[in-house]
Amino acid sequence: MTFSCLSHLHCPKCRAVYPADEVQQLCACGSPLLAAYDLDDVKKRLTPELLSRRPPDLWRYHELLPVRAGKHVVTLGEGMTPLLPMPRIGAEMGIRRLYMKDEGILPTGTFKARGAAVGVSKAKELGVTELAMPTNGNAGAAWSLYAARAGIGVSIVMPVGAPLINRKECAIAGARLHLVEGTIRDAGAIVGRAIQEHGWFDASTLKEPYRIEGKKTMGLEIVEQFGWRVPDVILYPTGGGVGLIGIYKAMRELAALGWISGRLPRLVAVQASGCAPIVRAWEEKRRESEVWPHPSTVAFGIQVPKALGDFLVLEALYETDGCAVAVEDAVLLLEMERVARTEGVFVCPEGAAAFSAARFLRENGWIGDDETVVVLNTGCGLKYPETVQAEAPVLQAQDRI
Ligand SMILES: Cc1ncc(COP(=O)(O)O)c(C=O)c1O
Ligand SMILES: [Zn+2]
């Protein structure tokens, strides 16, 4: 039985083609590689009706994922997260059909579980025994835990400023954890040298082709959950941009399969004002971004001064008539509170930024009041306890309130 219809890897920059059944990192030209599938074969094997009878996890899309043999799947039960209507905060914003895809309930508390599940499974299938990666925290945590389940050794380098919980997740999983005085770019440089020296597999964002395939399943799920219809707008908190590129890739594959038709959703890259290289590039109509100097935001997951896949993120924005929006920390922190108070969900600061961006884009008319809008909450607020103040009076047992 064919589990995956993966056909080959290709370079979106120089069009080079690579075989998919050996370890690959970047293209010789320095660009990330993308996975291609035999979509005619997928069409023969799979229908939306058949899919609806499969278990509710991301492996239901296995023909469109890169792992060749089911026995190599490393899973913690990730996928098929709820697509929740957000009527109260939607009404407040003037967006009647506002939905939130809640990635906060995934293993390790963020959508990074998707990339880790697929990336680690494929690494295992290809015989990888040691991998290394720089991270802003959540990805390192997810990869450490999935790699532990796969029996793969992991080295992680993360900024000292990353949320403490992420360090602890790596530590409990037995990863070799290092901290760096600097940003994820500095962490990346250290990992790059270590890869050269030790011959480890480089699991850095987009330096291996399969993490994006896991993140692509967010897009597949959104469409399936809407009954094979696409929403008008999807807002995504963008750091390295893999999620956004993945969602765009999902939409294109579904269109090629003929399972969706018409306009693709307008994709919105949301960043923090303290680190907004993609927003700046989009405003200047450029195809690539510049390194953001002195990045700083509480939404640590999106603090990426320059993404390797920036040109792919920008292409996705231009091709879908999307846009890019930057949000101040004070604004997104207020939004976190609003979402919790109106809808009962403790979203992460990155997700809150995407809600703020939806509010802003409705206010300026870019989003219409009858449009269907999806906000990605990429993680659980529980992973960011330091973002919430909880002052409370301390009582004695006999006190009254
Ligand atoms: C919670 C959260 N949201 C969003 C992002 C950004 O992800 P991407 O690299 O897909 O842009 C991250 C990355 O670390 C994250 O941890
Ligand atoms: Zn190339």
Please tell me about this protein's structure.
The strands form three sheets. This protein has a six-stranded mixed beta sheet, sandwiched between helices. The chain has a four-stranded parallel beta sheet with strand order 8-7-6-9, with helices on both faces. The chain has helices at residues 39-45, 48-51, 87-93, 112-125, 138-150, 164-172, 184-198, 211-225, 242-257, 277-283, 310-319, 329-343, 349-363, and strands at 6-10, 17-18, 34-37, 83-85, 97-102, 130-134, 153-159, 176-180, 201-202, 233-237, 266-272, 323-327, 372-377. The mean pLDDT is 97. The termini are far apart. The longest helix has 16 residues, at 242-257. Helices cover 37% and strands 15% of the residues. The radius of gyration is 20 Å and the shape is globular. It has 13 helices and 13 strands. Helix 4 runs parallel beside helix 5, helix 4 crosses helix 8 (211-225) and helix 12 packs across helix 13 (349-363).
Largest sheet: 6 strands, mixed
**Shape assignment:** globular
Rounded mean pLDDT score: 97
**CA gyration radius, whole angstroms:** 20 Å
Bound molecules: pyridoxal-5'-phosphate, zinc ion
Uncertain residue ranges: none
| Count of β-strands | 13
- Could you give the distance between the termini? 66 Å
